[in-house]
């Protein structure tokens, strides 16, 4: 059975609900959309999606962070936090869809909060690694999808887009991402496009989008059996050109 799902750091759902609804209307094959950085509590999430017949699940908090699921079919929430990540920040929600576990994540940026802020980033990566091992031990097919705030290689950011000591590039961040791959997961984009610059984020400053000075920080990591079903990974770059857009764009995963 084919399955299409997507991820989008929307940078405030209340500001951009109309963009999300329009995107869903134009992408009827997408069964599930995973949102990050919704910046609201569950009761503040716009009602227009449920009014239009979608099913919504939210792990939110006031003004910051927050993740959500918008689905065309009913979906159970298996957990609204990442097991082993000791924080009250809303950064993870997990569901089951057609016998596939999908973890929607918003990984800490790591540039703020000093050493403690960067340690939080590494702690999340470690907890995600443990979650990967647990799900594989259970024989589950799964995907971890969302905003990882990591550029895995130098090819994943435009020259001079980041300073060398940025938390998105630091060796410890990249090592945490590689450890996920070494646990048996597949980077969906690099599976289909092993080389080349493909960006999912363009800053609002200095004409970054117009200059294509971007970053690849929105990833989908797939378990072995799910990776065997991968047929497409699409970056919907045109969304960045909309009026008052998010600084991220949707990424879409297609499975046979």
TrEMBL record:
Key words of the record: Hydrolase, Magnesium, Metal-binding
This protein's record includes keyword Magnesium: yes
UniProt keyword annotation of RNA-binding present: no
SUPFAM superfamilies, per database record: DNase I-like
Cofactor(s), names only, from the UniProt record: Mg(2+); Mn(2+)
Domain Endonuclease/exonuclease/phosphatase: from-to ranges: 6-248
InterPro entries: AP_endonuc_1, AP_endonuclease_F1_CS, Endo/exonu/phosph_ase_sf, Endo/exonuclease/phosphatase, ExoIII-like
Family, per entry: Belongs to the DNA repair enzymes AP/ExoA family.
PANTHER family in the record: EXODEOXYRIBONUCLEASE III
Protein name per Swiss-Prot or TrEMBL: Exodeoxyribonuclease III
Taxonomic lineage from the root: Bacteria, Pseudomonadati, Pseudomonadota, Alphaproteobacteria, Acetobacterales
